[in-house]
Design goal:
Helix content: 10-25%
Shape: globular
CATH superfamily of the largest domain: 2,3-Dihydroxybiphenyl 1,2-Dioxygenase, domain 1
Low-confidence stretches: none
Oligomer: single chain
Number of helices: 3
Order of helices and strands: EHEEEHEHEEEE
CATH topology of the largest domain: 2,3-Dihydroxybiphenyl 1,2-Dioxygenase, domain 1
CATH architecture of the largest domain: Roll
Radius of gyration: 15 Å
Amino acid sequence: MQMIAQVSLLVPNYDQALGFYVGDLGFELVEDTSLGGGKRWVIVRPKNSQGTGLLLAEPADERQRARIGDQTGGRVGFFLFTDDFAADHKGMLARGVHFLEEPRYEPYGTVAVFCDPFGNHWDLLQPSAPEKIPSKL
């Protein structure tokens, strides 16, 4: 069996990123280990999830720094599935998460695009049924 365990996400600062992902989105901090020299191994993921985590990574150089918030060329790059869109959307709005659109209803479910403070675009998505999720979102 194989699975994607983590996806690396460039962030300008570990603590600022934790403030958003743990504080505003309510993710859990899975690991925060010092690697020396100011580098850390920081993993977050949605609470009560055993799925893929985000490895929050500060850039090592200017080339990487330039990619913060634009790792996917402006497309939605991250998909946060929920089983209660209305409650999660309301809670995220109350905690100051910036949505780029009003919720919309698609054949595959209820969705709204939000962005993190660094410019990465995310879908908050409640699938209508697993078989209706398109292979190309």
